[in-house]
Amino acid sequence: MYINKAFIYGNLTRDPELRALPSGQQVVAFGVATNRTYKNKEGQKQEMTEFHNVVAFGRLAELIGQYMKKGRPIYVEGRLQTRSWESDGRKNYRTEIVVENFQFGADGGRAGGSAARTEEGQSRQSASGGEEADTIQYPDEDINPEDIPF
Question: What angle do CA 15, 21, 25 make, to 5 degrees?
């Protein structure tokens, strides 16, 4: 079995570009920057930034196009895909992460911090009968250990 899986958490480098394919399916393209901090041989702290091309299709594309903007954090799970095309007699290549699942990142108190899931994840959630709330509601009183049924 082969594995092609990518996980990144970073900030959008540009506003998502939402388009429609000739079939009518929505597609969105955007960039994500991730940082890595490490110490070099001399023990000095270094920071390195990587830029990733990301693309999403269908409902995921609509959600990302509607709610995400440049600078906002996002968590992306997907697969790597390399496309090629010819332009002016030259062969071009582009490696992208194709989104299979994502979550909006922490916005520091701004709206839009809920999660988005693929169709499969949503069906699993609805099958269990639970619905996710935006915030967790804790009871006002303390939990009494005698109330626990086991």
Answer: 90
